[in-house]
Design the sequence.
């Protein structure tokens, strides 16, 4: 992860936000840049991933927006849950199956799924997978730990 400049334009430079909970990493700045293959490789070295659980890293944490990089081993699951804001899942590697009340859909690299807030869903990895989870916040009452590693 790196920061680039100040974002340009007429906006004043933004103070970077660090998080002790997230290893002291920068979670908000005027501009952030990530090398996703490197981030994915690091997540796959972690204990949670190696034990078949969802492994994630928050890349951006703003008051109204979260971007989380998630990895799952084939057969791994994120149990049924919902998010308090509109959500998108963008698959980078592998294949996942998303289960919702009305059915299920399989997503591969380059696929994007969007959901309104409070839609109950479960994610299952068909293959070793990596995906970007983006959550827009409209309410703050309920923040699922499944989305906030």
Sequence:
């Amino acid at each position: 992860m790196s920061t680039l400049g100040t974002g340009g334009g007429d906006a004043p430079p933004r103070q970077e936000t660090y998080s002790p909970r997230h290893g002291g990493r920068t979670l908000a700045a005027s501009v952030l840049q990530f090398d996703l293959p490197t981030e994915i490789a690091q997540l796959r070295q972690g204990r949670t991933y190696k034990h078949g659980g969802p492994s994630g890293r928050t890349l951006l944490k703003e008051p109204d927006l979260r971007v989380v990089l998630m990895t799952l081993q084939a057969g791994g699951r994120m149990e049924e849950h919902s998010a308090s804001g509109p959500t998108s899942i963008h698959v980078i590697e592998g294949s996942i199956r998303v289960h919702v009340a009305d059915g299920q859909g399989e997503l591969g690299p380059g696929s994007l799924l969007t959901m309104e807030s409070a839609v109950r869903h479960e994610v299952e990895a068909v293959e070793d997978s990596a995906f970007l989870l983006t959550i827009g916040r409209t309410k703050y009452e309920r923040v699922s730990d499944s989305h906030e590693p």
